[in-house]
Structure formats: structure tokens, C-alpha cells
Amino acid sequence: MTAARTLFVTATDTGAGKTLASCALLHALRAQGHRACGFKPVAAGGMETPEGLRNEDALALQEAGGTREPYELINPCLLREPAAPHLAANLEGRRIRMADLDVAHRELASRYEMVVAEGAGGWQVPLDEVWTLGSWVAEREWPVILVVGMRLGCLNHALLSVESITRRAKLAGWIANVLPPQMPLLEGNIETLRKRIAAPLLGVIPAHADAASAAQALDADLLRRICQPPPPPVELDVEE
Ligand SMILES: Nc1ncnc2c1ncn2[C@@H]1O[C@H](COP(=O)(O)OP(=O)(O)OP(=O)(O)O)[C@@H](O)[C@H]1O
Ligand SMILES: [Mg+2]
């Protein structure tokens, strides 16, 4: 067990703003003086670069963390096809090995105070016949941050996600990401979620924000609280 804290960033859907929010969290954590590193355990969708196959999200996280960690640590499982990870792995005749993800995470967690792990797709994305990304995260007991891509349908997606996440993991907070074109009744939608999600709203990322300005939209005090290590378990005095 390492002292580092890992925040896991999931979302209501693919394209909802996980990478933007994760990069914003890295900026905000670094501004608070933390040594923080991005992590993209599983990425589906690779592009050829002079350095080899790379995933855009992992590169963005690497840059936002300002670290020089080897790419393979930031993104231990990279699949070429931009598809559901277990299907993209099947195409390559591979399986996603949870042990590979754990080895890379352990290495990062030994060197950084904070690790910001971006998911793939949403909470229930399958990794193989047994594991979902959510079940793997739940076993690691990482606090989860849900990014809600604010568009029509997001109330249903957000509330389903919250129900599923809180069944197995701790939802530390949620972020409203305002996707363009702005949905009708945005404020009413945010307020509806605020009333129905027990976890706090960490911030509203405005449309067209970059990672640095999105970081400014996050509640610094709340983030500080989320980063605190959990209190040690209470030892009960059991009388003989
Ligand atoms: N607040 C915003 N304003 C404008 N564009 C945004 C905003 N948030 C995200 N986008 C754009 O929407 C797209 C999806 O965002 P992002 O990559 O952060 O989502 P994601 O959840 O990480 O997606 P994936 O499931 O592919 O990892 C990107 O092109 C991004 O630039
Ligand atoms: Mg992403």
C-alpha cells in the first residue's frame, strides 16, 4: 500500500470531458503544491508517431502533469482501434491484463503524491468477460470523480452513473462540463443534479475552457479535502 492518493475520473459517456477535467485536476493539484501525475490505464485509439503508437489522452495527461515519465507508465494498455477496449483487444488477439495496469500504477504511486487516472468511456465499460473498468477501480478503493457532459439526456446518464458508482465505490465529487452548443436550461439541469447527487459539485467547467482555465473553475477547498488520505479505521475496544 502506498501513501499516494489516486483520483479516478469517469464520465457519463465517451466524449463527455474526462480528459479536459483530468488535465484541469492536474493543473489544480500542481497549483496546490502537489506532485501529481496523470494515468490512463486503458486507452483505445492509437496514432503512429515517431516515438511509436500513442494515444492523445495519455499525451495530454503527460503534458498536464509536466512529468517525464515513460509513456508506458502513463498508459500501460494501448489498443490501436478506437472501440470498446475488450473488442479492440480481441482484434489484436490480446487480453487486457489487470496486472499490467497495477504494475504501472504502483510505480507512479511510489513517486507522486497524487495520481489522476482517466477512465475510458463510462463507469461500466467492459475490460473482458469478468472485469469492468469500474469493478477494477472499486477494488482499488480509489475515490471517483464523475464528469457530467452537460447535454440533453445527461440527467439520466448522470443519475444512472451515480447509482452504479456508489454501489461499489466512493463518489468524491462531480464536475459539470458545459459542452457546446450549450443545452437549453443549463442552470436548471445543474441544479437538478446538485439536489439529487449526494456527492459535492466540484465545479462547472465553461464551454471552450482549456485545462488551465478549467482548473480555475474547480473548488480548491473541496479538492484539498478530497486529497486528504482517508482516516485510519477506528479500532473498537472489544471487551473480553
Ligand atoms: N467544455 C468544453 N468546451 C468545448 N469543448 C469541449 C469541452 N469539453 C470537452 N470538449 C471537447 O469535446 C471533446 C471530448 O472531450 P474529452 O476528450 O475531454 O472527453 P473524454 O470524456 O475524455 O472522451 P474519451 O471518452 O474519448 O476519452 C474534445 O474534442 C474536447 O476538446
Ligand atoms: Mg479522454
Name the features:
alpha/beta; Rossmann fold; six-stranded parallel beta sheet; two-stranded parallel ribbon; globular; binds magnesium ion
How do the helices and strands line up, and which of them pair or pack?
Elements: E1 5-11, H1 18-31, E2 36-39, E3 42-44, E4 47-49, E5 52-54, H2 56-65, H3 71-74, E6 77-79, H4 85-91, H5 98-109, E7 114-118, H6 133-140, E8 144-150, H7 154-168, E9 171-178, H8 186-196, E10 201-205, H9 211-216, H10 220-227
Parallel strand pairs: 1-7, 1-8, 2-7, 3-6, 8-9, 9-10
Antiparallel strand pairs: 4-5
Helix pairs in contact: 1-2, 7-8
Bound molecules: adenosine-5'-triphosphate and magnesium ion.
Magnesium ion is lined by residues 18-19, 57, 118.
Plain-language structure description:
The protein is of the alpha/beta class and 240 residues long. The chain is built from ten helices and ten strands. The strands form three sheets. It has a six-stranded parallel beta sheet, sandwiched between helices. A two-stranded parallel ribbon has the order 3-6. A two-stranded antiparallel ribbon has the order 4-5. It is 40% helix and 20% strand. Strand 8 (144-150), helix 7 (154-168) and strand 9 (171-178) form a beta-alpha-beta unit. It has one domain: Rossmann fold (3-Layer(aba) Sandwich). The two termini are 31 Å apart. The model has no long low-confidence stretch (mean pLDDT 95). The structure holds adenosine-5'-triphosphate and magnesium ion. Magnesium ion (MG) is lined by residues 18-19, 57, 118.
